[in-house]
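README: folding subset

This subset contains proteins for which both the sequence and a predicted structure token string are available. Records are stored as plain text. Below is the entry for 5-methyltetrahydropteroyltriglutamate--homocysteine S-methyltransferase (725 residues), shown exactly as it appears on disk.
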Amino acid sequence: MSTPPAFPASTVLGYPRIGPRRELKRALEAYWDGRSTREELDLAGAELRERTWLRLAELGLEALPSNTFSLYDHVLDTAVLLGAVPKRYLDAADPYFAMARGTDGLAPLRMTKWFDTNYHYIVPEIGPDTAFALDAAKPLGEVRQARALGLETRPVVLGPVTFLLLSERGAAALDRLGDVLACYERLLAELAAEGVAWVQLDEPALVTDLGPAGLAAVREAYERLGGAAERPGLLVAAPYGDLGEALPVLAATPVEAIGLDLVRGGLDGVAALAGKTVVAGVVSGRDVWRTPPERAAHALRTVRAHAAHVVVGTSCSLLHVPYDVAAEPDLDPALRARLAFAEQKVAEVVELARSSWDGPEPAAASVPLAAPVPAGERAPYAVRAAAQAERLGLPPLPVTTIGSFPQTGELRAARAAVAAGTLPEPEYDRLVEAEIERAVRAQERLGLDVLVHGEPERNDMVQYFAEHLDGFAVTRNGWVQSYGSRCTRPPILHGDVSRPGAITVRWARFAQSLTDRPVKGMLTGPVTIVAWSFVRDDLPLRDVVFQVAEAIREEVSDLEAAGVPVIQVDEPALRELLPLRRAAQADYLEWSVAAYRRATSGAGPATQIHTHLCYSDADQILAAIDGLDADVTTVESARSGGRILGAVGGFGRGLGPGVYDIHSPRVPGGEEVERLLREALKALPAGRLWVNPDCGLKTRTYAQVEAALANVVAATRRLREELIA
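--- output ---
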């Protein structure tokens, strides 16, 4: 191949794709609901891409990425690119969304967390008989679309090693590396024929503990792709951490450029980069704080001393941050001055690229001493179980849900009207009470055993608490994609956290007054509140989590004092925050479990504590989950085919492996639920098995929920009758 042109001075590894006003969400949901066509959806996507490229060029960015847009998920896009579509989806009306969301007769592919972020990806199925076949229409189409605007772009594609490692078979899928590389070679040749100068292959798996087999795969992949006769220049980007032992392996291959995360990773080993172009990720794509210029300049100077050419870039894709601070007029001006969302981060990249990188060395960072871990223990589980059985009187296989019920359009409109000042608070409260009663009556009618109030007063399971705790700020338009059309607004945790007063007691007390069945008080755990916020960086993360744990402990005590018999403290992000390197995992699990136990330590033995985890490979940290010492743990299981059941042999408390995948619109049949329950009973004694959905029901409709729960209850009753007989 010919030598690629010099890489421009500034770039980003990716950009948000949902639209500044969540335009993609609305387009997707219109298509799914039958209110628009696939052609109209594709047109909405094309318009979003065009606006993004034009805006990045207007901001002065020199190297624009393409193929970072997705209608649902970029890992799913890569499976389609490589032809890795399981045969059972090929006859669906729209195979892409059938894999993502399922159909009435077809379950979707598994979904889980993307590294240590709150983004969810669709897990590819790669088997020995997967017939890979390249379909380069999407990356080529985006190159041509940008070129029609007069803009040249750099296609971004998930790299072959990461793609295989993220598949259902994990490291075992590396046995298909040769076949996958053949597709990547053809892709590179087609892009070269299109006149593309550079291609970015994202390999975040390289910042994990690969081991000898993984490192050998990296060497094989990039020796082979780097040696391809016809290809553009290759940039291999490794976000979310330090390349470590993979850096010299990658640097020894013929790839021309390497992207380093210099926010979460360090500068060790940069001497191996001689002769390479380095995209130096000095602007963070994972937080909302302005980049300290002295720190960035120091990193750039250090890399410049070794690399052939240095490009200023972001540490990872800006997918994980909101669009624009200018869209947040309600934030305190002093806080706004400290913030940088995607647009501001692009401006920082451009400014740094135009600067000389001279100046004083950054002051040595002071490391605050970690605060002592506060004690927090409850009575032994056997004592608690007896007290709770006497108080609650539940049947075998008790049926419950995770917490939220469908959020209706009327309720969302009412919440917006309160925020706009056009609906009085008392009138809104009456609407919330009516919605709580609707949820409670539906559960009674369906025959659930432990009820929830449905959370109609909550916009989001983290934001709601942030709005009631000191130390947080919330945004108006700070949306970030979680998966597909699902977006969240992560709060900004910028100061010391405390609880001015009770948060959930009023609604829990009201719900319990409507029924003689137990109703759960619903709280979000300290790790999850912190994980799903943008967090201050001047304290150890552990200390911030314990501040939140103290606030949740006070709420638990107030709920118990109000007579709430069951309190659920969710920790779906427990697995998510697990460090990517094994050496740091034990310390994290120790303090995160301690924080949860502190948060729940105020509850007496007769108060049943539940927790919940979802879509995060919880089977990998089951010992830590057991260590949370919750009386009942509910986990996602239906979408992942019950994989957690193979790991629960030593779990010593109540466990509810989900039997209803709520992230798909399909309604599970009674026979399907019964089959899942029978599988669970092979792994768990009936006295400790709970029956529940995979996750909260907020995103579903009442019609879907009531049909699904009716099937769940009917299947459970059939099994109860067998157990009693």
